[in-house]
Design goal:
The chain has 188 residues and is α/β, with parallel strands linked by helices. It contains 5 helices and 8 strands; from the N terminus they run H-E-H-E-H-E-E-E-H-E-E-E-H. The strands form 2 sheets. A 6-stranded mixed beta sheet has the order 4-3-2-5-6-7, with helices on both faces. The protein has a two-stranded antiparallel ribbon with strand order 1-8. Strand 5, helix 4 and strand 6 form a beta-alpha-beta unit. The protein is globular and about 45 Å long. 27% of the residues are buried. It binds inosinic acid and magnesium ion. The site of inosinic acid has 16 residues, from strand 5 and helix 4.
């Protein structure tokens, strides 16, 4: 008990909270309601992009009211911890065929749009019946990334964030909120 209280104090001290847990829960319920309405009576394949999207996806699917199956893929991009370099590669492919399926890509955050652009083009070639994206966070909105993201949780400033699945060098994924790490400034 004592350790837990201590951990949460340390966590809050080191971070500036951008989106708290209640706001996340509320917005994710809205996204789930919108998707449930749009896909009523259809079956959906949700593709969770690892690792960052795992917490968002876990909360989203528990609010969904459409028939769905879940698959996972992993993408890596070369570069430093806080910006992508431009080169994207497939680390883990889907387990199932998406030919003829209604596919929704579940992304944690879109920055340059490079990762999503790669996945989108790769999936289109597999001839799904439909292909849409749900992204919890969008930093690409003022960057002319050329992407059409149907479901966006929050448009956020172009600053590095962690928590709720998002990491800084693999740390902080377990924070229950989205925050700016204070150490961000030292690392830039
Ligand atoms: P993009 O290819 O530039 O759009 O970057 C997308 C990927 O970079 C995301 O799926 C994340 O893995 C990572 N990323 C981009 N911005 C952030 C951030 O602010 N915090 C943590 N990871 C990020
Ligand atoms: Mg990601």
């Amino acid at each position: 008990m004592r350790d837990r209280a201590l951990n949460s104090m340390v966590a809050v001290e080191g971070f500036e909270v951008l989106i708290d847990r209640d706001s996340l829960a509320e917005r994710i319920s809205e996204l789930a309601a919108q998707i449930s309405a749009d896909y009523r009576d259809k079956q959906v394949v949700l593709v969770v992009v690892l690792k960052g999207s795992f917490i968002f996806a876990a909360d989203l699917v528990r609010k969904l009211e459409v028939d769905h199956v879940i698959d996972f893929m992993a993408i890596g991009s070369y570069g430093s911890s806080q910006s992508s370099s431009g080169a994207v590669r497939l680390l883990k492919d889907l387990s199932h065929d998406i030919d003829g399926q209604n596919v929704i890509i579940v992304e944690d955050i879109v920055d340059s749009g490079l990762t999503l652009g790669y996945i989108y083009a790769n999936f289109l070639a597999r001839k799904p019946k439909s292909l849409e994206v749900v992204a919890l966070l969008d930093k690409s909105w003022n960057k002319d990334a050329g992407l059409d993201i149907k479901y966006v949780g929050f448009k956020i400033p172009d600053r590095f964030v962690v928590g709720y699945g998002l990491d800084l060098d693999e740390r902080y994924r377990g924070l229950p909120y989205i925050a700016y790490p204070k150490e961000d400034e030292d690392n830039l």
